[in-house]
């Protein structure tokens, strides 16, 4: 988090949290995800001011780093409703995109209630992959005159919460969708409005790149929806009938408009509105830097590392070009930028996307006027700005310094480079590596459900249970979402192994996994699907599944599909005593019998089903706090004097709330009552040290009264800190993991800075290992 300090801040005493969605001018403080929620509200404000009667539509499927977007949309429901904006989550990504496609068709037929519907689709990188067919069809068909589509790709460059790193630009290009790449929270708002306007002008869907560094940051931003003067180009002439959606519309005519006109229209729009622009210029520029999105901020940081201010860059001869629309790269702007330069460095994360377009444009330039261009590789083939993982400002600074060294150097820059190189070398030295491996929450159903009997092995899938692949539980390999168990259909004919278990989350089952089970039944393989029914989409925030899904419904569906045998295993078998309409022949067993049930099912020929029914522990905790679920009046404690420290309770429960404690008699165990979610699996071990307390409450510390004597061992009062004189940007790092107040502290400091009129940006470092 960094804070820019103003000399005489004026405190905004009237500010409320609701202002992030209700203020129509001035400054507000919000996160990147909240900016995406506010974006359609701002579009509606612009439309109403223009005399348009439009509506908005949002759909898609959750996934990091947009895992919480649906939660924010639900929270803002009253504001969206007042603006005629409908949020309908997709059961999966491509069905959500298909609904968005449908919104653009509303004005093709009689009965349309609005002048148009502006729409937003969202999904993580694998969801973009999944939607290729819809994107191609929807984009080829086009958008309505007063509609428009933004397609948000949530890319995980460093693979913090994904099974593969993702950069979605080339998938958008495959569908010939223009691509915008915002660099921060303000950019999300400004480029989002430009994106819808571009979508209407070009008749195309517009790809919109989001990454964790952008959407999981918070900032003070300006929010007047009319602060952008969006210009419609005058130097472009479209085809007869325009570029928008129409019916009937033969495919070859769609292709003609898309290839011959739409790309040119996007370039004309970007040029008229300066979506790509020079941010640092020099009258005698020799070195050019082209960059986009997060990399733009990294370039500014790299120049700061080298001690080069904007004024220094102008004196030295450096020109910096910020690309907002990364495809199609607007040719006139890039040519004007390159005029007079000797050397250009393209700084972009993942693949050489802008670099390739630049080189294609420049191929036919006069070679005397054509600068050298490097990006991922330099002229000697050295991999200078890798496409793997993420780029860092230090990497970029060293590349800039080397290119700058062709015509300029100074003792100050040499000293900075030496310092950076020393730090980078230090990072390469051998050191003990203690990675923080993610683990299941206390009381998580997966602590039990992912166990397999001796002699069997399991396959993983997408969801929290994917983490079992890091544990010693004979669970190896995984598939994409919805392909669970289908790899076994390919393996089974060619191995002597006769049976496997396949883990499948209930959210994935509803998303696409039910079709994978149908494939396994059709292939006649021996497999047991363990459908882990947790009653929530836990990995992305505990959202409800986007539809009706119950255990009886699952059993009836799979019985109709032809599953050979179905067993429900649960921690509460008594709840199935009544008439719950389970499929015929389904048996219900207690989770203590899980091993025996699995041994029975692996002997059955064909596809069998084990539905493991136990609510997500984190969701239980939330619901109990909100009074929506009974809080069991029983607690488990360990008598440390009796405990022998064998650790069998940890083996039985795999629970993080069972903690080691050092005593004068050696290491023992205790249960952390603050994190315990009352799963009670720790009591399965044969141990006399366990004590259960019925109806007892945790004792709260007594408040010190005026007559209470001070504790002679208490620490002395902490003095008020001396506040630093922060005349420039001030950085603060708050260490910890999710659930310990890290994000709360950052938000408190950020809001305090915002209220005092300071410029502020916070950045949350998210990912599996950062969560509690």
Concise structural overview:
With 772 residues, this protein is an alpha/beta fold. The chain has a seven-stranded mixed β-sheet, sandwiched between helices. Strands 16-17-18-21-19-20 form a six-stranded parallel β-sheet, with helices on both faces. A five-stranded antiparallel β-sheet has the order 2-9-27-1-26.
Polypeptide structure, described:
It is a single chain. It is built from 25 helices and 27 strands. Helix 5 runs parallel beside helix 7, helix 12 crosses helix 16 and helix 16 crosses helix 17. The chain folds into five domains: 250 residues, Rossmann fold; 152 residues, Rossmann fold (3-Layer(aba) Sandwich); 170 residues, Thiamin diphosphate (ThDP)-binding fold, Pyr/PP domains (Rossmann fold); 62 residues, Alpha-Beta Plaits (2-Layer Sandwich); 41 residues, no CATH class. The chain is globular and about 85 Å long. Helix 19 links the parallel strand 16 and strand 17. The N terminus is likely disordered. The chain is of the alpha/beta class and 772 residues long. The strands form six sheets. It has a seven-stranded mixed β-sheet with strand order 4-3-5-6-8-7-13, sandwiched between helices. Strands 16-17-18-21-19-20 form a six-stranded parallel β-sheet, sandwiched between helices. It has a five-stranded antiparallel β-sheet with strand order 2-9-27-1-26.
Integer-rounded radius of gyration: 29 Å
Task: Please report the number of helical segments.
Answer: 25
Number of strands: 27
Strand content: 15-25%
User: Helix content range of the residues, please?
Assistant: 25-40%
Low-confidence regions:
3-8
* SS-based class: alpha/beta
Can you tell me the number of structural domains? 5
Label the overall shape. globular
Overall average pLDDT? 91
Identify the CATH architecture of the largest domain: 3-Layer(aba) Sandwich
- Give the termini separation: 21 Å
Strand order of the largest sheet: 4-3-5-6-8-7-13
The major beta sheet can be summarized as: 7 strands, mixed
**CATH fold title of the largest domain:** Rossmann fold
Reading off the top of the CATH hierarchy, the class of the largest domain is best stated as Alpha Beta
CATH superfamily of the largest domain: Thiamin diphosphate (ThDP)-binding fold, Pyr/PP domains
């Amino acid at each position: 988090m960094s804070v820019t300090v103003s000399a005489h801040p004026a405190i905004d005493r009237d500010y409320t949290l609701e202002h992030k969605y209700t203020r129509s001018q001035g400054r507000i403080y919000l996160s990147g995800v909240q900016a995406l929620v506010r974006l359609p509200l701002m579009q509606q404000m612009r439309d109403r001011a223009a005399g348009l009667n439009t509506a908005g539509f949002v759909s898609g499927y959750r996934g990091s780093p947009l895992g919480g977007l649906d939660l924010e949309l639900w929270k803002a429901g009253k504001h969206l409703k007042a603006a005629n904006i409908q949020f309908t989550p997709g059961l999966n990504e491509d069905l959500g995109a298909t609904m968005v496609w449908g919104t653009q068709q509303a004005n093709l037929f009689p009965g349309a209630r609005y002048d148009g519907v502006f729409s937003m689709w969202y999904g993580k990188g694998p969801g973009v992959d999944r939607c290729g067919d819809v994107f191609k069809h929807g984009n080829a068909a086009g958008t309505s005159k007063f509609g428009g589509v933004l397609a948000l790709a949530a890319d995980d460059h460093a693979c913090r919460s994904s099974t593969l790193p993702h950069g979605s630009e080339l998938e958008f290009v495959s569908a010939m969708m223009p691509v915008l790449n915002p660099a921060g929270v303000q950019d999300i708002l400004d480029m989002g409005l430009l994106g819808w306007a571009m979508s209407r002008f070009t008749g195309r869907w517009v790809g919109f790149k989001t990454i964790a560094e952008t959407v999981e940051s918070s900032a003070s931003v300006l929010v007047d929806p009319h602060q952008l003067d969006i210009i419609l180009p005058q130097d472009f002439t479209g085809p007869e009938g325009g570029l928008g959606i129409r019916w009937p519309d033969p495919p070859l005519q769609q292709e003609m408009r898309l290839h011959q006109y739409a790309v040119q229209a996007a370039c004309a729009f970007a040029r008229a509105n300066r979506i790509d622009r020079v941010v640092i210029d020099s009258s005698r520029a020799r070195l050019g830097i082209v960059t986009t999105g997060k990399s733009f901020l990294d370039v500014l940081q790299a120049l700061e590392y080298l001690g080069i201010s904007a004024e220094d860059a102008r004196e030295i001869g450096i020109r910096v070009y910020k690309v907002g629309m990364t495809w199609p790269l607007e040719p006139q702007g890039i040519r004007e930028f390159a005029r007079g330069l000797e050397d250009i460095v393209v700084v972009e994360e993942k693949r050489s996307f802008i670099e390739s377009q630049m080189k294609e444009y420049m191929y036919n330039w006069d070679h005397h006027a054509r600068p050298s261009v490097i990006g991922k590789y330099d002229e000697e083939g050295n991999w200078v700005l890798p496409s793997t993982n993420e780029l860092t400002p230090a990497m970029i600074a060293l590349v800039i310094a080397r290119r700058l060294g062709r015509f300029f150097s100074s003792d100050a820059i040499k000293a900075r480079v030496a310092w950076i190189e020393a730090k980078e070398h230090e990072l390469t030295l051998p050191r003990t590596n203690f990675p923080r491996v993610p683990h299941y929450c206390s009381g998580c159903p997966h602590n039990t459900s992912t166990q397999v009997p001796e002699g069997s092995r399991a396959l993983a899938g997408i969801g929290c249970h994917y983490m079992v692949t890091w544990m010693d539980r004979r669970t190896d390999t995984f598939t994409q979402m919805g392909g669970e168990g289908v790899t076994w259909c390919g393996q089974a004919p060619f191995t002597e192994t006769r049976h496997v278990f396949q883990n499948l989350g209930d959210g994935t089952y509803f998303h696409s996994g039910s079709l994978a089970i149908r494939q396994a039944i059709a292939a006649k393989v021996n497999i047991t699907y363990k459908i882990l029914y947790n009653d929530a989409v836990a990995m992305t925030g505990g959202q409800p599944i986007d539809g009706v899904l119950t255990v009886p419904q699952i059993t009836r569906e799979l019985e109709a599909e032809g599953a050979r045998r179905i067993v429900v295993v649960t921690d509460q078998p008594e709840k199935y005593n009544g008439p719950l309409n389970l499929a015929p022949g389904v048996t219900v067993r207690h989770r203590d019998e899980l091993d025996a049930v699995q041994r029975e099912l692996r002997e059955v020929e064909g596809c069998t089903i084990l539905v493991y029914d136990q609510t997500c522990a984190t969701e239980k905790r939330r619901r109990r706090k909100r009074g929506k679920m009974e809080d069991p009046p029983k607690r488990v404690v360990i008598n440390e004097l009796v405990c022998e420290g064998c650790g069998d309770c940890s083996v039985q429960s795999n629970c993080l709330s069972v903690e080691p404690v050092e005593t004068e008699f050696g290491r023992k165990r205790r249960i952390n009552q603050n994190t315990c979610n009352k799963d009670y699996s720790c009591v399965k071990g044969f141990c006399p040290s366990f004590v259960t307390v019925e109806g007892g409450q945790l004792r709260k510390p007594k408040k010190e009264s005026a007559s209470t004597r001070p504790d002679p061992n208490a620490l002395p009062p902490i003095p008020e800190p001396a506040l630093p004189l922060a005349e420039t940007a001030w950085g603060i790092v708050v260490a910890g993991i999710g659930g310990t107040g890290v994000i709360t502290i950052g938000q408190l400091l950020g809001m305090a800075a915002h209220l005092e009129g300071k410029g502020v940006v916070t950045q949350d470092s998210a990912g599996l290992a950062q969560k509690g």
